């Protein structure tokens, strides 16, 4: 597999990762909602001019989706980000604790530590919320989990292993509370059904209720939670 970089001219120009694959039989264009990366996969021997022509044909679609995704938000004083679904502006804090105000989140300390300190606070809040939700759903199901860990996972919001270990993305604490609760119910349901059968979804519905709106929110809006960059 060969990878190279090309640029689609325009205002602004769009950087595209060109991926040549011996298995590809047609051109396919992918925009990552996580980091905004554009990847064009093409058959190995396709001339580059044809790849550029394909991009030109898709330019309006691509620019529309890039605009809808928005730019990454680098966390610093003055930046905005959601906390439990409520958009807040980062402002300087007093004392030692991160505090929530009316549309603000106050973070004390030197400016070069603001992002790291806020990320640590958010991870602690996420652990508290996810442990509470997991405990509640586990008790309702009558099946215990073995441990709970947090990661900044890019490909999934949560997982459950065969030995009952739960993993969640800490970024769920940025989403509205019902979204976090749905993911917890989803993963705890795997303690009973290690699949996505109709029996599994019946367990999710018993624990959470109608899960379809929350699942649709994650599909449509979840990628935006990865726009917030904490210096990583």
Automatic annotation (TrEMBL):
Pfam families: YgjP-like. Residues 28-220 form the YgjP-like metallopeptidase domain. The keyword Ribosomal protein does not apply. GO terms for molecular function: metallopeptidase activity. Keywords: Hydrolase, Metalloprotease, Protease. This is Zinc metalloprotease. It comes from Salipiger pallidus.
